[in-house]
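Z., the sequence and structure:
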Amino acid sequence: MTVGEAVDAVDADIRDHRITVDATGLFTLTRHIDLLCHLTTRTAAEAEYQLTPNIAALPPATTLGASASHLGRAVAHYAQALTPLTALTTNAQTTPQQQVDALGHHNSLRIHLDDAGRALAAARTALEAKHPLPAVSPPAPALPHDPTVRRRA
């Protein structure tokens, strides 16, 4: 599976398994963090491998590096979403005041999940960018041999 296909698979999984405000949502959120961490690590590793010459199957290292940084941002936003989700799932909102107090947590949760989604989309966009192939230059001509120059022994 290419990095682009892996990003698409994680994105599809995230869309198919929405975060809910309950214990299941906490499990799903941590699972999404796990998937994104693995994907970020793989993308960064492939960027490192691309720094070695002659790996034509991978996108350029700069493209992989940009994608890995966007994936890292998605991980960070998911991690920041843990706090409001935990507050919402562990505290009952039975009174009107508790429900009003919970609005800030709902807002924070939504902001972080939306930002994570945008970061994941940016990672995919970075991989889709068309990059020109490096120009192959002809080898440098050999210098003519000067018989008057002596080499040290």
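Helices lie at 3-16, 23-50, 61-90, 96-128. Residues 63 and 127 are 6 Å apart (CA to CA).

Let me know what you think.
H.
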